[in-house]
Amino acid sequence: MIEFNKVSVTYPGGVKALHDISLQINEGDFLIIVGLSGAGKSTLLRTINNLVKPSSGSVIVDGKNVTEASKKELKHIRSDIGMIFQTFNLVNRSTVMKNVLTGRLSQVSTFRSILGLWPNKDKEIAFESLNKVEILEKAYVRASNLSGGQQQRVGIARALAQKPKVMLADEPVASLDPITSRVVMQYLKQINQELGITTIVNLHFLDLAKEFGERLIGLKDGELVYDGKVHDVSDKDFENIYGRAIKSSDLLGDDE
């Protein structure tokens, strides 16, 4: 589904965020990316939909070269890639329903969306998406009146409304408490398993990586230093990822 071919990213000022990353992600994978702040997790995620353009190398999504795509081609590619943000990125003054319907923008004319003339089919998809994360009863509540966990569930529903082939979640639980974080991760995992959507999640919390992850990617200073099953990670692997000796039992133990 996704292929990185020697991808490097250098930001203005000479900051090197990614170094020569080569990686394949299969259709239906549930992939978790870990690493220290500044390791390149968000940069890697955002090269998939070309929100960050590689300085060299290429990213292929579902057989399409994202890196070299024209604006028209990129719009089509992005319609198949849902994005979930740490800060939710909702329009607080709008209702939950209106926020979720923005996930259908690529399928509706600008004129109809501005006037709120959404086809019944798109409304049905929005309702289905809200129901999938069990927040349908909040459809006509203003987004600003929701808790953080509820807002993130709306963010997931908005991404789901796109009918995506790929779901990108950039630190989706970083601002949530431990219990709510698990709820959000459970929805992401359930969606992956039931709908087969390839899902990539950036995380800081390694206990969540153990509980929900299947395949783990470790980044350090923009370099890929681990790629394997979550439960196969050794203490030495963690030392490579985090740059110091650390026990996996400490980082991946029960969170009580």
Note down, in words, how this protein is organized.
- The chain has helices spanning 41-47, 71-78, 96-101, 110-115, 120-132, 148-161, 178-195, 206-212, 235-242, 248-251, and strands at 2-11, 15-25, 30-34, 56-61, 64-65, 81-84, 166-170, 198-202, 215-220, 223-229.
- The chain has 256 residues and is of the alpha/beta class.
- The strands form 2 sheets. The protein has a 6-stranded mixed sheet with strand order 6-7-8-3-9-10, with helices on both faces. Strands 2-1-4-5 form a 4-stranded antiparallel sheet, with helices on one face.
- The model is unreliable at 248-256 (pLDDT under 50).
Q: What is the makeup of the main sheet?
A: 6 strands, mixed
Proportion of residues in extended strands: 15-25%
Helix content: 25-40%
Shape type:
globular
The side-by-side strand order for the widest beta sheet comes to 6-7-8-3-9-10
Q: Catalogue the unreliable spans.
A: 248-256
Helix/strand structural class: alpha/beta
Average pLDDT reading: 89
Order of helices and strands: EEEHEEHEHHHHEHEHEEHH
- Count of helices? 10
Number of beta strands = 10
- Radius of gyration from the alpha-carbon trace, in angstroms: 18 Å
Query: How far apart are the first and last residues' alpha carbons, in Å?
Result: 37 Å
